[in-house]
């Protein structure tokens, strides 16, 4: 369509020109004494138009000729910038490939080329960010080569170059890399200090939280590590299974850091309800409380949510739960005795529940029932500790009945003979 329109316009111009020039009888006379020159008006118009185009072409040619030095300088600058960017890409590629010496050399080439451009008065676009990236690559390479002095120098330069507002993301990246280097050097306090220099938004990114978690664990700060792990789990920084495992481990570390009953109560209060309901955490807390001489009634309160779901627990956790309850058996009340008996009657063939019910009856001086339950449990238990304890209890009951032969047999089985 556009070609057709241009063709019609061309024909219109041609027709207009023909109509104007075909019947134009005008002349132009030039007087140059003693001469007189008569020229056709059409010829004069053509000469004027031709002169205009000729002068325009000459001026363009002169402009292009005079602009050649500037274009040559611009071309040389572009070539240097391209070589600089190529060197940066090469340094990153060598770093990813583990060729740290070459990566460091390429990063130094980037800095040298950028300095050369700056000295000639041609600063590249985003020069500060480019220099910061080159220093980060060089610092990473120096860290891999165990050159701490060179690494720290490059880090300082990277932070100085990335101080501009437009290079904020690069500065955040430099701080995160520096924190990771500090962790590799087993300097968690330095890593935490570097992470604290991050802006609030950057400090809540997944990478920053992972680094903070690792630093807190290295520094022996279980509460800080637990709070960081909660944030990571909330923002889906871990898979659900991994998040549960990490939270469980950190909660146990927090409980292990308590060295008296008051500290243990504070640590338990610092846990979230979901963490307190984890079987491993509750059992460990109850055992820790008992070992510190705490109240057995409180320990059983902590174990109650786990007890209510004991049928769903794995065998090893059920055995740990039974051991934790057995440690406070001397102060077992009627309510807990009823719970244990109800669970044992609901699953009469469970040797672990038979053992727990038998020990509970023994502590409540229900000798006959304890003898029956413990004997049945001892014949079916697979856990070595519970098996040994069951036969030991049977032997003690036999000694109370003054049945020496039964006591001797039970002691022999408790000894594993």
Automatic annotation (TrEMBL):
The places in or outside the cell where this protein is found are: Cell membrane; Membrane
Task: Report which residue ranges the record marks as coiled coil.
Answer: none
Q: What main location does UniProt list?
A: membrane
- Specify the protein's topology with respect to the membrane: Multi-pass membrane protein
Question: What parts of the sequence cross the membrane?
Answer: 45-66
Q: Does the keyword Cell membrane apply?
A: yes
Q: From what superkingdom does this record's organism come?
A: Bacteria
One GO BP annotation is:
heme metabolic process
Q: Name one GO cellular component term.
A: plasma membrane
Q: Which residues form the HemY N-terminal domain?
A: 26-114
InterPro entries referenced in this protein's UniProt entry, alphabetically: Heme_biosyn_assoc_TPR_pro (IPR005254), HemY_N (IPR010817)
Q: Which UniProt keywords apply?
A: Cell membrane, Membrane, Transmembrane, Transmembrane helix
Which NCBIfam families does the entry link to? TPR_hemY_coli
Task: Please report the name of this protein according to its UniProt entry.
Answer: Heme biosynthesis protein HemY
- Source organism per entry reads Ramlibacter ginsenosidimutans
């Amino acid at each position: 369509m556009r070609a057709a329109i241009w063709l019609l316009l061309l024909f219109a111009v041609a027709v207009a020109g023909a109509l104007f020039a075909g019947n134009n009888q005008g002349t132009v006379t030039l007087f140059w004494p003693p001469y007189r020159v008569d020229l056709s008006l059409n010829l004069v118009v053509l000469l004027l138009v031709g002169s205009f185009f000729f002068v325009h072409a000459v001026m363009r040619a002169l402009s292009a000729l005079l602009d050649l030095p500037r274009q040559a300088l611009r071309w040389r600058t572009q070539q240097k910038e391209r070589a600089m960017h190529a060197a940066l890409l090469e340094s990153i590629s060598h770093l990813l490939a583990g060729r740290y010496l070459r990566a460091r050399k390429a990063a130094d080439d980037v800095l040298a080329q950028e300095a050369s451009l700056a000295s000639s008065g041609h600063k590249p676009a985003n020069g500060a960010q480019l220099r910061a990236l080159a220093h980060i690559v060089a610092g990473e390479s120096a860290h891999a080569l165990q050159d701490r002095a060179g690494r720290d120098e490059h880090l300082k330069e990277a932070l100085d170059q990335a101080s501009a507002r437009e290079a904020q993301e690069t500065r955040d990246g430099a701080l995160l890399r520096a924190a990771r280097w500090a962790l590799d050097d087993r300097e968690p306090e330095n890593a935490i200090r570097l992470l604290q220099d991050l802006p609030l938004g950057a400090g809540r990114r997944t990478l920053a939280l992972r680094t903070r978690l690792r630093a807190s664990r290295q520094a022996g700060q279980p509460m800080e590590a637990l709070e960081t792990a909660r944030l990571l789990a909330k923002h889906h920084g871990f898979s659900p299974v991994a998040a549960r495992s990490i939270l469980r481990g950190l909660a146990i570390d927090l409980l292990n850091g308590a060295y008296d009953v008051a500290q243990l109560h504070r640590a338990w209060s610092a846990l979230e309800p979901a963490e307190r309901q984890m079987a491993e955490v509750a059992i460990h807390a109850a055992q820790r409380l008992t070992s510190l001489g705490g109240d057995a009634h409180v320990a059983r309160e902590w174990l109650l949510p786990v007890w209510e779901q004991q049928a769903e627990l794995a065998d090893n956790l059920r055995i740990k739960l039974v051991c934790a309850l057995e440690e406070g058996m001397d102060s077992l009340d009627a309510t807990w005795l009823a719970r244990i008996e109800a669970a044992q009657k609901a699953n009469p063939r469970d040797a672990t529940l038979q053992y727990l019910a038998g020990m509970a009856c023994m502590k409540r001086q229900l000798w006959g029932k304890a003898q029956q339950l413990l004997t049945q449990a001892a014949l079916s238990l697979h856990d070595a500790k519970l098996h040994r304890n069951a036969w030991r209890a049977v032997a003690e009951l036999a000694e109370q009945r003054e049945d020496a032969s039964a006591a001797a047999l039970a002691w022999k089985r408790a000894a594993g003979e």
